[in-house]
Amino acid sequence: MRNNSEPTPSPKGRITGKVFTKWVNDEFKRxxxxxxxxxxxxxxxxxxxxxxxxxxxxxxxxxLKEDPQTTGIFLxxxxxxxxxxxxxxxxxxxxxxxxxxxxxxxxxxNLTVDLEK
Length: 117
Known about the structure:
With about 120 residues, the chain is an alpha+beta fold. About 25% of the residues lie in helices and about 30% in strands. The protein contains three helices and five strands; from the N terminus they run H-E-H-E-E-H-E-E. The strands form two sheets. The protein has a three-stranded antiparallel beta sheet. Strand 2 (about 60-65) and strand 3 form a beta hairpin.
């Protein structure tokens, strides 16, 4: 991933699926992932014990620009309200790879949106 500019600022205020998806697309552009676009962020709506066992709270759906039929997802492990809360106290959203989660290094499916101080 190319990363030669300042990170995309974290959204201010209420974070919705549209706001989150727009931030991901802006971050794709910033790091040089030009052939992919995020088109939807979805809540998983699992039960509490599922989240305690490590289930993702959100997933981002993306597609290749040149072939919209080729789609995929990547997982995010915070709910919208947790992103909002942590951003208010000084954290920043970052797009990063979770290496080898599915066996492929630097694959779009290994991305996640994390929070850093």
